[in-house]
Amino acid sequence: MNAASPYRFDEGSAVRVVIADDEPLARERLQSLLADLPDVSVVAEAANGEQALHACAELQPDLVLLDIAMPGLDGLETARHLATFEPRPAVVFCTAYDAHALSAFEAAAIDYLMKPVRPERLAAAIERARVFLAGRGDSQGNGDGRARTVLCARLRGGLRLIPVEDIHYLQAEEKYVVVHHARGEDLIEESLKSLEEEFVARFVRIHRNCLVARHELIELRRGTAGQVQAVLRHGKQPLEVSRRCVATLRQDLRHL
Predict the structure, then answer these.
(1) Looking at 2-16, 76-90, 231-245, which range is the least confident one?
(2) Could you give the CA distance from residue 219 to residue 206 in angstroms, rounded to a whole number?
(3) What pLDDT band is residue 206 in, cutting at 50, 70 and 90?
(4) For position 4, what pLDDT does the model report?
């Protein structure tokens, strides 16, 4: 989500926190520790990554305390989605395992706390979050470079998770990208270029404003005006192919 946000974090204001952990006792412990810290407010709890994303879309917290090993969307993939949010929350991983430390920082986490979380380490992480929030907006990222398994469409009052494997094609429309998928259409605020880079193995460009899932391509054919069109497995109508993309598409079709 690339549009500029009017939200600004002021030093000294309360840090608004979402706690995401599938273990109720772990959430309770973090709640207790945070209650002892000044200018910290817990605005929501989540038991998995999907709940965390919904909470963040609705409440726009400053900080997410995020477990890694959770059912469904794990913490690492959840962090990759949070990196696209605007305003982007700070992410601190809280986990019982140290094997994910490198992946955590590659996923743009600002800190990595081992369970049981010690009060002084949590306090230090909150202060690190304040520094991040004061300078937020200087950098954007999309996690650790691994492709996501779902895309997030921001809706009024929440969001919809769209499995990438269900997407037929992606089409740029002004500042949005229209996601055409098995259950309909949704708008996302991500650039077509960044999606092409992230999902290069899954989608192929057929036009400057369109990426198509490779498994959706059936054939190329000439339209009535002589232009080349791509016929999709689940497309209602063929899509226009730009001349510069024809050779690459023909090559891809030979290997499908």
Answers:
(1) 2-16
(2) 12
(3) very high
(4) 36
Q: Provide mean pLDDT across the span 117-139.
A: 87
Q: In angstroms, rounded to a whole number, what is the distance separating the alpha carbons of residues 223 and 240? A: 9
3-state secondary structure the chain: CCCCCCCCCCCCCCEEEEEECCCHHHHHHHHHHHHCCCCEEEEEEECCHHHHHHHHHHHCCCEEEECCCCCCCCHHHHHHHHCCCCCCCEEEEEECCCCCHHHHHHCCCCEEEECCCCHHHHHHHHHHHHHHHHCCCCCCCCCCCCCCCEEEEEECCEEEEEEHHHEEEEEEECCEEEEEECCEEEEECCCHHHHHHHCCCCEEEEECCEEEEHHHEEEEEECCCCCEEEEECCCCCCEECCHHHHHHHHHHHHCC
Q: What is the pLDDT of residues 165-180, one digit of tens each?
A: 999 999 999 889 999 9
CA dist 19 and 65 (Å) reads: 5
CB 25 within 8 Å of CB 50:
no
> What are the beta bridge partners of residue 160?
153
Tokens found for residue 72:
């469904």
* Residue (of 86, 54, 49, 50) closest to 66 by Cα position: 49
pTM (2 d.p.): 0.71
CB atoms within 10 A of CB 83: 19
Residues 6+ apart with CB under 8 A from 51: 20
**The pair of three-digit structure tokens given for residue 101, joined into one six-digit string:** 């430390």
Condensed to tens digits (0 to 9), the pLDDT of residues 216-237 reads: 999 999 988 889 999 999 988 9
- Residue holding tokens 């601190």? 92
